[in-house]
Amino acid sequence: MEQIYVSGLEEKAREKSIELLNARLLDCIDLTLAVKQAHWTIKGSSFIGLHELLDAIAERMRERSDTIAERSIILGGHTGGTAQGVTKGSQLEAYPQDITYQKDHVEALTKRFIAFGKNLRQSFEQADEAGDDDTADLFTEISRGIDKDAWFIGAHYDEAAANTGR
């Protein structure tokens, strides 16, 4: 039986959207793991506030991953969201595993959230050009949340820098 796709998109648009969705899925999973790494290892005077914030952000990131993966599957794609897939395919800079100070985590996370937001906006443009308004809208929605979380994390920078003396 021929596969019927719910979206009704042209084949070329569907294939492009699947490619974009899968690329952003790998970034999203990678960023989620970076947030959890920081959550587990962060130290400093604002520990509990940042620890709890990062846990909440990690949960939002998992929801974003689900949304991205489900859209890819709806369009007839396959996801590669395994650890091996993320290692090979994420376009984000690897997260340092040897940092513990608030200032360092805040800098590293904010930098990666900004990069992921940029990737999302580029994917929005490409999905829009391909004719997939729904996938473009998904990228826009997620980018708003990523920008907000980058702001939440980045807002801790001055305090973290002052408290660590670094």
UniProtKB/TrEMBL annotation:
Give the Ferritin/DPS domain ranges. Answer: 18-159
NCBIfam families xrefs: PRK09448.1 (NF006975)
Instruction: Tell me what gene encodes this.
Output: dps
Supply the name of the protein: DNA starvation/stationary phase protection protein Dps
Q: Which domain of life is it from?
A: Bacteria
Give the source species.
Answer: Croceicoccus esteveae
Kindly give the PROSITE patterns that the UniProt entry links to this protein: DPS_1
PANTHER family with a match to the protein in the record: DNA PROTECTION DURING STARVATION PROTEIN (PTHR42932:SF3), GENERAL STRESS PROTEIN 20U (PTHR42932)
Return the Pfam families for the record: Ferritin
SUPFAM superfamilies xrefs: Ferritin-like
Q: Into which family does the record put it?
A: Belongs to the Dps family.
